[in-house]
């Protein structure tokens, strides 16, 4: 019986070692992969704030300058902005496009202009949509995001026309990336 | 009366040997797994360090690309790397990892790429055929010859030396 116990103890010790090593390895590799996607979200923001676009019939201009102009005109939630944004983010997201969905949100003065590219669960085709949300709906959508979500944001200074004068206010540009099919638009 | 057990006829050395074999084989497996994991994590950190050396400019130009290449190549000792900037249409989509897109034999230096101005490598030695490659893609803005800031994809490949 002593020998039986010896074998049992050895087998249990081996199993504990196997499991511990496996879990340690899996967790570390998972954390390392998350770093990449965090960095990717940060790069998307960098790209959005430095890339050029060329609207039809116009000279190339910075997308950020164009965005600020549209914010001044109150035309952020338009198809034109969506198309120009798509030209940039479509290229930037090319390596991840098959596996991840994403959204870009411009937030200013309690209004949130969302542009989202998403899939329904189990579908391959990606759809796009734009929404204008108040803070309550936007924060509710953010708090209900499923899966591992990677996000990065930057503050921007934009000029708007209020009460007969031009004033500068804060606009936040935020990018979200999440595994495909897990989240849908709030509108 | 005490019953008979077949185990009584087994020499003591057999179960002790089995136990020792089980224990040491699992220990060596665990050490090997941890070592491989450490290498993966170190590679991941190296990929990010190399990528950031180029991405930190915000907008890459031919000159800033070269400056970053010279700076990071001298700092990366334990890993070989190759970095180049590609048109997004020429980059495989659908997965962040595409190990089949590049093969070890092509990574001797940047000479196989048509646009060597946008390629940086810190070694002239190709990785051995069984060396694992860590490939990551990052979006960057690269200023073209017309002064327009185009969206490109920076491809970073890292492999352990030795």
Write the layout of secondary structure elements.
The complex is a heterodimer of chains A (187) and B (162).
Chain A: H1 2-50, E1 52-53, E2 61-62, H2 63-73, H3 79-92, E3 100-108, E4 111-118, E5 127-134, H4 135-143, E6 150-162, E7 165-179
Antiparallel strand pairs in A: 1-2, 3-4, 3-7, 4-5, 6-7
Chain B: H1 13-55, E1 59-60, H2 62-73, E2 79-86, E3 119-121, E4 134-143, E5 149-160
Helix pairs in contact in B: 1-2
Summarize the structure.
The complex is a heterodimer of chains A (187) and B (162). Chain A has 187 residues and is α+β, with helices and mostly antiparallel strands.
Descriptive report:
The complex is a heterodimer of chains A (187) and B (162). By secondary structure, chain A is an alpha+beta fold. Chain A has a five-stranded antiparallel sheet with strand order 5-4-3-7-6. A two-stranded antiparallel sheet of chain A has the order 1-2. Chain A is built from four helices and seven strands. With 162 residues, chain B is α+β, with helices and mostly antiparallel strands. A five-stranded mixed sheet of chain B has the order 1-4-5-2-3. In chain B, helix 1 (13-55) packs antiparallel against helix 2 (62-73). Residues 94-100 of chain B have low confidence and may be disordered. At the A-B interface, helix 1 and helix 3 of A face helix 1, strand 4 and strand 5 of B.
């Amino acid at each position: 019986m002593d020998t039986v116990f010896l074998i049992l103890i050895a087998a249990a010790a081996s199993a504990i070692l196997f499991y511990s090593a496996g879990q340690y390895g899996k967790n570390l590799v998972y954390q390392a992969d998350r770093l990449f996607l965090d960095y990717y979200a940060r790069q998307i923001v960098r790209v959005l704030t430095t890339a050029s676009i060329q609207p039809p019939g116009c000279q190339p201009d910075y997308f950020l300058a164009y965005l600020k102009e549209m914010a001044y005109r109150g035309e952020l939630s338009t198809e034109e902005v969506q198309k120009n944004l798509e030209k940039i983010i479509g290229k930037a997201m090319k390596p991840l496009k098959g596996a991840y969905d994403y959204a870009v949100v411009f937030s200013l003065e309690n209004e949130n202009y969302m542009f989202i590219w998403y899939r329904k669960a189990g579908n391959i085709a990606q759809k796009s949509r734009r929404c204008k949300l108040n803070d309550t709906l936007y924060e509710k959508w953010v708090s209900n995001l499923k899966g591992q979500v990677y996000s990065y944001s930057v503050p921007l200074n934009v000029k708007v026309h209020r009460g007969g004068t031009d004033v500068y206010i804060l606009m936040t540009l935020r990018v979200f990336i999440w595994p495909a099919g897990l989240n849908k638009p709030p509108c | 009366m005490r019953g008979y057990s077949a185990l009584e006829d087994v020499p003591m050395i057999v179960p002790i040997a089995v136990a020792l074999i089980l224990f040491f084989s699992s220990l060596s497996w665990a050490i090997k797994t941890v070592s491989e994991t450490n290498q993966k994590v170190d590679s991941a950190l190296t990929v990010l360090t190399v990528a950031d050396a180029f991405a930190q400019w915000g907008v890459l130009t031919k000159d800033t690309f070269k400056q970053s290449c010279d700076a990071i190549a001298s700092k990366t000792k334990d890993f070989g790397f190759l970095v180049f900037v590609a048109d997004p249409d020429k980059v495989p989509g659908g997965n962040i990892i595409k190990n089949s897109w590049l093969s070890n034999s092509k990574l001797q230096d940047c000479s196989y790429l048509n646009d060597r101005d946008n390629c940086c490598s810190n070694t002239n030695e190709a990785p051995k055929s069984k060396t694992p490659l860590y490939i990551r893609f990052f979006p960057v803005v690269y200023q073209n010859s017309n002064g327009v800031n185009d969206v490109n994809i920076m491809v970073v490949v890292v492999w352990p030396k030795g």
